Amino acid sequence: MDKQKVSLFSIPVIVAALGYFVDIYDLLLFSIVRKGSLRDLGLDEAAISSSGMDIISHQMLGLLIGGIIWGIMGDKKGRLSVLFGSILLYSAANVMNGFAQNVTQYGWCRFVAGIGLAGELGAGITLVSELLPKEKRGVATSLVAGIGLTGAVVAYFISRSFHWTTCYFIGGGLGLSLLLLRVSVFESGMFKNIRHSNVSKGDFTKFFTNGRRFRKYIFSILIGLPTWYAIGILVSFSDKFAAELHIRGEVDPGKAVMYAYAAISVGDVLIGLVSQVLRSRKKALLIFYGITAAGIVLFFSQRNGTAGAMYACCALVGFGTGFWAIFVTMAAEQFGTNLRATAATTVPNFVRGSLPLLILMFNALQPAQSYLQAGITTGIVAMGIGLIAVLFTEETFGKDLDFVE
Fold first, then answer.
1. What is the pTM assigned to this prediction?
2. CATH number at residue 335
3. Nearest Cα to 378, choosing from 250, 230, 276, 277?
4. How many helices (H) and strands (E) in the chain?
5. Residue 194 lies in a domain
6. Is the dihedral of CA 33, 35, 40, 42 positive or negative?
7. Does the pLDDT value for residue 154 go beyond 60?
8. What does the pLDDT look like over 295-316, one tens digit per residue?
9. Which of 90, 91, 246, 252 would suit a FRET pair with 148, their CA atoms being 20 to 30 Å apart?
10. Least-confidence region, from 127-136, 171-180, 207-216
């Protein structure tokens, strides 16, 4: 299909947005129902905290492994093969999660779901980036992420109306229903042009055999590091931070996730527009990095504050980290058609997979530092690394994507 005829609200964009909506619903559901579901399985408060970190680490490990699998498949077999295969896997895993009877089963279900969830965003962003003209792709991918991220908000409200097992069944059902819409989506013309060529496709090792390509790949990953520090540590464990800060009133981490993702969805749309106005991905990123840093400072400055103020800080941090779509789009724009899906799929999942390392650092700091100090130190490291990566990453706004590595 002619790129000029593919609009911002075409079927591929809408389906990619709905796919990411289901992806985020399933990805964040555990953070939302963590306390209730683990309490229902018979765990006490101490075990809920430790087992919760273990289970979310299982999910993130699955994302890490799945990112490589689906990325390679996206470049070898096509973007649509990933969109179909990944959704089948994570839908089935979520249905099975509804039957989990203990922490071990719960962890394995989240691991398998993580593998499936890993393929959704990268394949969707790659497809949309290749189908739309370069003047529109930044806004289009921001719309995909902005609409998709509201899945966390829906997950929160569904969790307030249904038992946690039913919430997982609903997630599986939403994914399977989406398959019906996927039938109408067409493959990327860029991929079809190289499908039968002799050029090497989906070779993951190519990111490590060339110095310039390796630097681009590593910087693409490190840019996203602050996002999962903010969501995976600050927001997901906001109740623990609230206790340390002597916040008045109970803080519900599920509600904190809901507020954060509502704000992220707004941020993701706005950063696309900011990038368009400034004609620069990097300048837009730096602005939102500044907002994220301000949100983190306020988060740790609210001693003896209120639960409402804590939720507001989670929303501000979320809004700042609304650079997710632009950062994944930049990863797609950095590389040729034969490696684009591999890059766009592995990069965000390596960022998600970094959460266990951030949690490991956070926990390792606590014997020498307080819970709050460990959180601050981890944040300084994550933000510092991300900022350096942004500064050394090349600008990709308006780049022609019709090339191979």
1. 0.85
2. 1.20.1250.20
3. 230
4. 19, 0
5. no
6. positive
7. yes
8. 999 999 999 999 999 999 999 9
9. 252
10. 127-136
DSSP for 245-267, please give it. TT-BS---HHHHHHHHHHHHHHH
Beta-carbon neighbour count of residue 335 at 10 Å? 26
Number of domains in the chain: 1
Question: Has residue 199 been placed in a domain?
Answer: no
- Mutual orientation of helices 164-182 and 11-40 as an angle, nearest 10°? 160
**Per this entry, what is the length of the chain?**
405
The amino acid present at 168, given as its one-letter code, is Y
Domain span at 120: 7-181+207-392
Secondary structure of 133-157 in the HEC alphabet? CCCCHHHHHHHHHHHHCCHHHHHHH
- Closest C-alpha among 286, 248, 241, 257 to residue 378: 241
How far is it, in rounded angstroms, from Cα 37 to Cα 69? 30
Report how far residue 133's alpha carbon sits from residue 130's, in angstroms, rounded to the nearest whole number: 8
User: Look-up: residue for tokens 């997630």?
Assistant: 171
3 state DSSP class of 150: coil
Whether residue 402 is contained in a domain is answered as no
* Of 181, 180, 218, 203, nearest in space to 73 by CA: 203
Query: Mean pLDDT throughout 331-349?
Result: 92
